[in-house]
Records
---
Amino acid sequence: MINATTLSEFAKNLTLLCVEDDMVTQRRLELYFSKTFKEVHVANNGYEGLEKFIKHNPDIVITDIEMPSLNGLDMTYKIKELKPATKVLVISAHDDKDYLMRSLNIGVDGYITKPIQNNQMMDNINKILKHLAILKNIQISKTNILDDIKTNVNFCDGDDQKKFIEALHITKTNELTIKVLNIYKGLVLSHDNTILEITKNKLSIICTKSQALISKIATNVVLHTDLFPKSVSADIIGIKESNGKFILDLDNFIHFEDSLIQRKDVRLIPKENFLVKLFFKGKAYSVEIVDISAKAFSLKNDVLSNLFSVDDEMELKLHLPKEYKTNYNSSSLSILIGCKGTIYKIDNSGNIIIFITYKNQSDQKEVVDYLINRQKELISELRSKLTSI
Amino acid sequence: MDKIDFTLLAKNLELDLDDIYMLFEIFCDNANLIIQNIQISYDTKNLEELYRLAHTLKGSASNLALNEFVAKCKQLEDLCKVNDLANIESVIIEIKNMFDKLRTIKYDKEAT
């Protein structure tokens, strides 16, 4: 296991970039981290952060979210595109955005809440340092790695199965965390969990109470670790509480085709039977939407599976519900969104995924607004379900 | 009224005492500008910007454990959220008064 001295020595070879628009916080972090890291660079906003990132190639970025011009999350996405191995720690305001933050957490490697507490910040930094140290093969403890573990792992490639199990053991032995994603109607809730035990027929992880409750509603999870590059889906076969700790037992591991970690756009299941009118080769079809993002629709395609193929182009008209609120009342109307679509793929369930280009910028904004409201609605729905359990 | 124990703050933030003095001076300079902008945003009834400024000021002050000042900024944030223009002005005045008192600490740091 990596000890504190090793981590401290390791950090002295690393560079940190701190992106924060508040000068007091920025200077505080710069002063504090100058004692730990080889170099600390600072930036006042996302654009400057991106420039400094390209110039200095830091190992770790610590960033605020709310900043003028480019915000911290958009900057993070760009940084992850440029260099996916960069570790990003996000600072967020501690309020109701907590749930939203968890759902956005998929692209970042940890987050801390304001007011910033040094111990919370250093816990996160140490986790990141451990991951980096392991990836750079510093003092990896590989003891007790059992090659003959027989889980019900169902991978396409036997070699992957062995690597995944090895990654789990390295994670457990070095007390690293594994990213566990619960998905509720498209809303992705991310937690960093530690492994309790790996046995012949299950993987047990220590989770939070809210995660244990969510797991009663959404009965599978997606696992992700830097030590194993592919995301893995697993069934939750048991939820228990022991000595004040909540534990999830997982089994039936399979590759998860869609990389939630790299997903940039929120993709949600709409509330109503959402129909889109599709115009293809002179005919109109009404098709149900399975899920929706700002850039793509996934459409149910039970009847029409033989009609379409990849790269087919079509016109679409979407009736989007919209709430209108005045000081006196609120009403719901639907607005018509016109767009062009190209079939990207037809998945195993026969659903067709269509990439969308909008005819008007304002239409795109309406869809984004719908998704923001839908996300809030799902968070509220989830909360009320959790309190009723 | 908030008091600053610079020595305790230095210990809590794991920084040198001189660093804390510097952070306090940065805070005073920035807060002065932010409060001026808060007044402009209030005069132009730009509550979105007013909320953002109150939020920034709150975050900045929280570094120095100025808890009463932070609470007042939070109150301003909350009023902006519910468009309570009637009470916003009095809270801005309170923030200004609190800040004027805080600034005097800056020149009395040897005594703390």
Note: The helical segments of chain B are 6-13, 17-43, 47-62, 67-81, 85-106.
---
Amino acid sequence: MLVLEEELDKVKLEAQQKIAQISSEKDWVDVKAFFLGKRGIIPNLLAKLPTLSPDEKKQFGQAVNSVKFFIESLLQERLKKIKEEEANKKLFEKKIDITLPGKVMRYPGSIHPITSVINEIVSIFTGMGFEVAEGPELESDYYNFEALNIPPEHPAREMQDTFYINDNNLLRTHTSPVQIRVMEKKAPPLHVICPGKVYRRDMDVTHSPMFHQVEGFVVDKDINFGHLKGVLTEFLHRFYGSNKTIRFRPSYFPFTEPSAEVDIECVVCQGKGCRVCKGSGWLEVLGCGMIHPNLFSVVGYDKEVFSGFAFGLGVERLTMLKYAIDDIRLFYEGNLSFLEQF
Amino acid sequence: MKVLIKWLKDFVEIKDSPNELAEKLTMVGLEVEEITETKDIFKGLIVAKVLETSLHPTSNKLKVCKVFTGKETLQIVCGAPNVMADQNVVLALPGALVQGNKIEKVTIKGVESYGMLCSEKELGLAISSDGIIILPNDLTIGKNILEEAYKDLDDVILNINITPNRGDCLSHLGIAREISAFYGKPLNMKLKTPKLIQKSKDFNIKIENIELCPRYTAKLIRDIKIMPSPDFIKARLSLCGMRPINNIVDITNYIMLSLGQPLHAFDYDLIQGKTIIVRNARDGEFLKTLDGKDRILKETDLVIADMSGPIALAGVMGGENSEVMSSTKNILLESAYFAPTNIRKTARSLGLSSEASYRFERGVDIQGAPLACEMAAQMMADFAEGKICAGVYDAYPSPKEQKIIKFRLDRCDNYLGFSCDPKTAEERLLALNFGVVKKRYEWDIIVPSFRSDVIIEEDIYEEIARLGFYNEISATLPTIPMRSRDDLEETRFFNEVQNLLIDRGAYEIITYSFIKEKDLLKLKFPMQENFVYIKNPLAEEKTLMRPTLLPSHLDVAINNHIRMNYDFIFYEMGKKYFVNGKNNYAFNEVPVLSLIFSGFYTSKSWYSDNVNVDFYIVKGFIEKLFDKICRMRFNVKPVDQNEYPFLHPVDSAEIIIEDKLIGYFGRIHPHVETNWELKRDIYVAELDIETLKKLYFNKKNQYYNFSRYPWVDRDITVIVDDNISYEQILKIMLNNSSNLLKDITLVDIYKGDKIGKNKKSLTFKLVYQAMDRTLSDEEVNEANSNIAKSLQKNLSVEFPK
């Protein structure tokens, strides 16, 4: 008996070694036959059973069967592993160049830089609670000039060389007429911005006969110049970054009083003075002021009750500064090489 | 406007550096755009001595000079007749700027020249010169001319942007007044208003239109001698950008730059009848102005006339018939006030702007006229040997009253958003020459005569705020109430459409809203009467607000083709413009989405082939857009050649949705492609934005139940006459389908010999699916064969064998 048990232990050990060495399905079949096949080791051992006593038979039979199960489970495990390895090996037979360019059926286009800057401006102001309004580009002299406190023969008309359609109608030279149009229709409180195209008879590297402005204004009780400073400072900090220094300096517009021009620390040289800011360290970015009481008379607001401020942004200028574009004409040429960059 | 710091110092003490001064001027509203030290202008211009001169070997007009610079001797070729040895001269060394031109070493007719000897004209000190400047002999050779010969030219020029409201600042006195206000330093005004006289035995003055000329002062200066002005006048005028002419003209200009009052000097002996009449011109009256141009006048123009007719265009320009010339002996000097509006009208209608009209338009100080007259006369006595009598003749029939403005300090505080203490407010107003009369609840502010821009109470607020450089006002945010916001919906629509477009590969462009009329002809665009023409376009050509975006977009296309960008989709959301109705005073601005396709839609790469843009690619692009914007399909109609002569008659279609025409798409007509010299086929599309917007807002986006059972597909291939449309076939299939049919896809089209001429074969894939069960083959086959039968019945299609 002892001899038989020793033999069983040897078989177990041999099986462990042989099965571990199996490297293919074919090997596996051979090893399986070697141990479990008709003339394999296990059947050979079982063949010895009849020679044993009933007690030994039972004991030895159980021992052989347990070795048989052990070998079978080892073999199953091994087979699973071999199959996995082979499948894995097959995967690696495929070769690809992962650095090849990806397949793109159509690249997305882009929104024009002017539009995206307008969108950015609009979203900053709508975020503060401003409403968006629009007005016609073909305006009357009344809305473009007279209602804005610019009577005929006013020297300020010279600041804006105008395209005329007839004696009474023109291409608006600024978005300020929308101020009057909105005030005529609605009562305060008003917090409005008006983006749009405007036109002036002027054309060079920094002037275009058509360009874009965003007009903004607020009318309510107790609106003061400090609010104007607050709103525009907030806007400029959102647009250019809150580390930029801003200054308000007195200026003149016929439709505001007091009026101011707003300068921002040069975005190119950080205020040290360069070609872009003409050495001053400052860039003029917008004009603004408290709405002139004459405009309130025009729309029938009581200037003793309401006050307001207004401002106008030149979108092209902001865009040129933002992207360091030095020729305004690039915006209107529609050159793909330009548009692709945005 | 250019001002000189030394000249300003005649009026007010300035201790700050030019930069500091400029900063403060800018912060009170007088924006200094440029600071120029004249040292930089006159760099390289030195006092030099001519050692010897010899004749140029090949030119008898030129001389070759040896000139000593203090360090070395240079050879200079000079054409001036007056150059001689032992003279001190002004030498421009290589690198110096003379009238904007850089001096360089040059070879003149074979002889090298290392610089240039300068005349007064070349230094800007005279309008013409006969020869070079000969300097006194006692100067140090080699020094810059600003140090030795022309100390008056040594100055700092501030170029100030004067806003149109500040006519009072168009002079050194005006700027000095502002400086005196913010430094708190008194103004040095040594001269007092002269004695005014109402009668003169030498001349008569009649003002016929006192509205346009409320004040006219004059003075006679006898026995003057016309000659060049003294150096300081020439230098100051030149640095301020005016050409010195002669002492009389220069003095009038000098006083204008100094005090802001434009003056005019008449040759007294040329005034007919010794009478000045200020009157409106007669229609068609004629005057030759000093610039040599003949002017035909209108009744609205104000003129200065004598007994024979106009001798000057009041406030704008003098006439040649009374011009001061070298022979002039006696001067009648005019110092007047003309109404701004009328001056501007005249200057604009004649296209004639002068330093004088520029100032009158912006308002000069009506109280300053006699003083300017007297000061100019004094200078004519000093520098033109003139003889003057005491007093200034003054015609001022109804003197202007002082302007008084009611001022409330508490309202000022509320308006500006800072609390200004009464003492500061008063000090600032006094410093700016306002009078302050304090009453119990408000102040009366007396506006100085030169501040015609200060009219209302808020103007006073600005005066107080700007003297604090706006710095005292702290930034605060106002409160904004919540409210209903339709406008945000609009923004959302535009953002969504734009995102769809760029996601599908389109680039946004922005082009000018106006086009040339000839471009419409080039496009064969049907001309209409309601186009909006621009009266005064940039170019001479007939220009109009565009009734279509196409010409601009074809321009963009060809500009890209020229630069070898052939493949693109561009879009623009722009407007078309039309006159609305019969009169010319109301307009329609119609927003449209315009697209232009060129070249390959997909280009060759390692995984794809070149695919040209074609009708169906453009159609698919728009279909997808509609699907996303409004989940709707549109119908198409062939285009009418008369309406769309610019489109290819076959490769184009109108877009109809809910029986409404909302745009078109298609290929550009080959003739138009040729007109634009386009290098690729161009497809375009135009969609009405207002309709799109309506569809977008009406979009119903509701969930529908879907089947969880398997689907089955079947193919149907039919052979039909070529002129039967896909839509006809589709309609029959849909009309004869059961509710099991889920989808139909056209999977193949074949035309060719196998099926015969004028025939086509279409293969459809039909998908069947039930909501409640797995379909059996029998059910599907039956449904499919019903559809096939109906096609055979209705369209006599054949099925392939």
Note: Residues 124 and 235 of chain A are 7 Å apart (CA to CA).
